[in-house]
Amino acid sequence: MAGRPVNALVIRLLLVSLTIRILGSVDAGRSLQGRSDPLQYSFYKSSCPSAESIVRQVVSNAVSHEARMAGSLLRLHFHDCFVQGCDGSLLLKSIPDVLEGEQEARPNDNSVRGFEVVDDIKSALEKECPGVVSCADILAMAARDSVAVSGGPSYPVLLGRRDSLTASRSLANQNLPGFNFNVSDLVANFANVGLSPKDMVVLSGGHTIGKANCNTFAARLTPNADDPTALESAYRESLVPQCPTGANAAFVDLDVASPTLFDNGYYSSLLRSRGLLHSDQVLYATPSTTHDQVARYAKSQAAFFADFTTAMIKMGNIDPLTGSTQGEVRTQCGFVNSS
């Protein structure tokens, strides 16, 4: 008889503990997504179990054909998430008098590419699992796989995003970071979408792969001894013949040391004043916490990889559309289903 009250008390305590844990999980989900139905790591486990392997195979084939494509696919996810959240809005094509797409925005024009690879992925997925995998999720998976096939870290991707019905060229012009930004501009720009200065520095490391158009750094080809972000002279001189006057269609590797390998070479280049873009070199040239973080990543690739994984997952959680009532799953990534 004496044991019953104790057992009852234990049961009550266990129930209270369980309730707290459940509520805590729900609150964490709301905090992560701003909604009660957060993304999941195993979202397509039942509905399309081969989804991730299909994406990985198409990305691997595309990058093996053209190494630059890895940086392009990573950039698509980045530029999508900074405008309206990670909702695939960047993929929508402009339709006169109907939709003003984001691809023609100033930061995207002659810059974003890889749409044909996304379409190839979507086509393969539609054959396997019609109407199941969203284009926004394709961008998240393709970015991860582009990093992995280039020698970088592979990480689990939260899935369950749905595709937007709209796009915003004005927000793309307003929200995407510029190649001529200073540290304060970059910090404010990333804070606008809920990312920290630390996130900004580590996500900038994505420039360890890919190329930049000559017009984004043309002003840096003129010597300027008073500029703390000025290019190292030998490196600057090597760039001049790659960017002849008027050759705005020319592209140059962002990371001269290892342009097709996802590593910490980007940060090592900044220590040598070989950051191609002003917005790259300023991270080390400015006496601030960004300077110390660059030096840390230049010293430790493991630290860069660990923080990059965390920041990519965080970026992929920017205002996704989830649940059955938000957005849609497009059958073609360039058009909403009604069109």
UniProtKB/TrEMBL annotation:
Protein location: Secreted
InterPro entries linked to this entry: Haem_peroxidase, Haem_peroxidase_sf, Peroxidase_pln, Peroxidases_AS, Peroxidases_heam-ligand_BS, Secretory_peroxidase
EC number(s) recorded for this UniProt protein: 1.11.1.7
Binding positions for heme b per the UniProt entry: H207
Source superkingdom: Eukaryota
A GO CC term assigned to this protein in UniProt: extracellular region
Keywords linked to the UniProt accession: Calcium, Disulfide bond, Glycoprotein, Heme, Hydrogen peroxide, Iron, Metal-binding, Oxidoreductase, Peroxidase, Secreted, Signal
Broad EC category: oxidoreductase
Family: Belongs to the peroxidase family. Classical plant (class III) peroxidase subfamily.
Protein name (Swiss-Prot/TrEMBL): Peroxidase
Upper taxonomic lineage: Eukaryota, Viridiplantae, Streptophyta, Embryophyta, Tracheophyta
